[in-house]
Sequence to fold (348 residues):
Amino acid sequence: MELRDLLLFTIEKQASDLHLTENMPPLIRVNGRIIATEYPKLNREETKKLIYSVLSNDQKEKFEQELELDLSLSLPGLDRFRMNVHVQRGSIEAAFRRIPLLIPSIDELSLPKVAVELARKPNGLVLVTGPTGSGKTTTLAAMVDLINSEREGIIISIEDPIEFLHFNKKSVIKQREVYADTKSFAGALKHALRQDPNVIMVGEMRDLETISTTLTSAETGHLVLATLHTPDAPQTIERIIDVFSPNQQHQVRLQLADCLQGVISQLLLPRADGKGRILATEIMVATPAIRNLIREHQIEQIPTLMQTGSQFGMCTMDKALKKLYKDGIISLETATSKVKNPEEFRSL
Fold:
């Protein structure tokens, strides 16, 4: 069994992920479901051998020191993979996330039109949020590709690891991989400001220093696109503010109120017909009223403004789920498992 064959099989089956784990055959995830392949079960030595077959000596050394490793793999002319190597009960195992070679457009992803408007903003902070595996990276890549196609400028992306590969179109795009091209997100961000960027894309706002530098970058006239693992816009705002110490939070609320342009929160849901998955999106646009609520720390009132802000392109997740259900795209069971107010949803 060769790892290349398993990756080709993953592409062929249109799977989103491949998992190599001890005492199991290789597993793939198709439309959100884990499926065992017909390959033989892997023992501990075979699993390690398959994984180590694609690692350089430096990567093996780094993994053996830290017991964690993230990297990207590319097959010439085929899709790329984001690879995570880890240890489970003493066994070296790996997860591979498939990244299509072609970057889908905003229309192909069924993103609302307001996503195009947010990508065209000259400056400020645009956040894409949602759980792991909800397509945040794909949405960011589509927005960056739109900017790259329409705007002349410098785009700097900081990722861990690099996922979608971008090529210069109207813009010059520089993709920097954490640990390979730079030591940290925060360090790369700090220095990015001296590289004359128009747009900065941050793969993940994962710690205080990165969040702080991201806010500063958005304040200083750049458009910054970033992701967070939060379920909706109000919790995204709370998460950013809560990272800071209490004596800094007032200043951060002012910063965020001034620079935030919008939040796209998303879920990937199984279609009712069983043919793949569909994107459900919640949109918050930073209107003057929303900015004021952030300043005054009245975050709990934001959902009310989102419910009544459809003229600005705003939409709550419950409303998006209701539309997908009424259009017959998702089942009632899928919709009710994700809504915030199930009783209210059923009455709708």
